[in-house]
Amino acid sequence: MKFQSRLYAMIDPAGGHEPVALARILLAAGARVMQLRLKDASSREMLAAARAIVPMCRERGAQLIIDDRADVALLAGADGVHLGQEDLPLAAARRLVGPSMFVGISTHSVEQALAAERGGADYLGFGPMYPGGLRNNVAGKGLAMLREVRAAVRIPIVAIGGITEATMPQVLAAGADACAIITDVVHAPDVPAKVRALLAL
């Protein structure tokens, strides 16, 4: 698979934005790959948001990936699902969504990255890159480990965790195909301007 931009935009309500409204803002600013990440939403709320956002993405030729929920991704007609290490196993998710939808896996080590690639993941999430971020990570995996993962696998890598406009260039240079950024975007005083600045990198 190939990502349509180096910014993997996150539709996350951490900054107080309503998800569908935030998706509209991100798309208008130029985001072309987005993940719907609603950790505290009910299944019904997540499906409703996904079904509202999918047609908006179709209009702009953007990709929508659903966090954690293969069932919601399938029902909403999204482009893919992103799974954590504790979510549905990769093989089970693939059986559910079929070969046409892509499946990404969160990884935190070279071993997990290799296992995800062997299991048929279309791309990896890797992180947390830096301390801080939405989850207040105590420590980051750092650029050296990202380089190790890049050397070990052939599939695309989305780096995540504490990445900002200032650090995105070095993360891309270390081998990430895209950067997932939440805090630096959703807490920006001007979200569209921040998205455009990140896309310009």
Describe the 3D structure.
The protein is an alpha/beta fold and 201 residues long. The protein has one domain (7-200): TIM Barrel, CATH 3.20.20.70. Helix content is 41%, strand content 18%. It has nine helices and eight strands. An eight-stranded parallel β-barrel has the order 1-2-3-4-5-6-7-8, surrounded by six helices. Helix 2 (43-60) crosses helix 3. The longest helix is centred in the N-terminal third of the chain and has 18 residues, at 43-60.
Topology (SSEs and partners):
Layout: E1 7-11, H1 19-28, E2 33-36, H2 43-60, E3 63-67, H3 70-76, E4 80-83, H4 90-97, E5 102-107, H5 110-118, E6 123-126, H6 142-152, E7 157-160, H7 168-173, E8 178-181, H8 183-186, H9 191-200
Parallel strand pairs: 1-2, 1-8, 2-3, 3-4, 4-5, 5-6, 6-7, 7-8
Whole-number total of structural domains? 1
Strand content: 15-25%
Succession of helices and strands? EHEHEHEHEHEHEHEHH
Strand order of the largest sheet: 1-2-3-4-5-6-7-8
CATH topology: TIM Barrel
Distance between the ends: 21 Å
Rounded to the nearest angstrom, the radius of gyration is 15 Å
Number of helices: 9
Q: Helix amount, in percent?
A: 40-55%
Oligomerization state: single chain
Based on the coordinates given, report the CATH architecture. Answer: Alpha-Beta Barrel
Uncertain segments of ≥5 residues (pLDDT<50)?
A: none
Let me know the CATH homologous superfamily.
Aldolase class I
Q: What's the rounded overall pLDDT mean?
A: 96
Shape: globular
Please identify the top-level CATH class.
Alpha Beta
Overall strand count: 8
